[in-house]
Amino acid sequence: MLRTYKGIAPNLSEGVYIDESAILVGDITIGKDSSVWPLVAARGDVNYIKIGARTNIQDGSVLHLTRKSSTNPEGYPLIIGDDVTVGHKVMLHGCKLGNRILVGMGAIVMDNVTVEDDIIIGGGALVPPNKTLESGYLYVGSPVKQARPLTEQERTFLKISAQNYVELKDEYLQEG
User: Which CATH superfamily is domain 2-175 in?
Assistant: First the structure.
């Protein structure tokens, strides 16, 4: 479940839940009260992964990054903010997600993408490399396009979704 790579092991904060079928390798930091669900694969081997607080990575998702090179000296780490819901079978690769985001099931977010705060990315969306998604909108499609501003109800739901997963992971932790 948690594997060391080149002497670096995943670092978990207080209250984190990792399903026993998930695999986390190397330089991965996970914030307080976050959760990683069944069959997630996260490889912090050629760069690092940082996941914020109260963030959930749902079943079958893949988290990876881009290696450092002579043409890209820093590579692209994977950085995920606080109160983020990453839906089932999402692929996140060398991108940066802000806070209060919902990434819909089956979405793909590629290298050097910046997703600002308070965003919903629709299921099945493809966010191509080097794109910035502006705060406060719903994005859908392949390639992704800005659809419309989020409603107040949707903005409120972003934190509710994250909190629902905090409560669920607490139930799992109590089961032991």
Answer: Hexapeptide repeat proteins (2.160.10.10)
Going from N- to C-terminal start, the domains of the chain cover 2-175
Angle at 160 between CA 111 and CA 18, to 5 degrees: 60
Residue 166: name the closest of 84, 13, 55 by CA: 55
Split at pLDDT 50, 70, 90, the class of 176 is confident
CB 60 within 8 A of CB 40: yes
Give one word for 136, left, alpha or beta, with left for phi > 0 and alpha for psi -120 to 50.
Answer: left
Between CA 80 and CA 8 the distance in angstroms is 20
Global pTM? 0.97
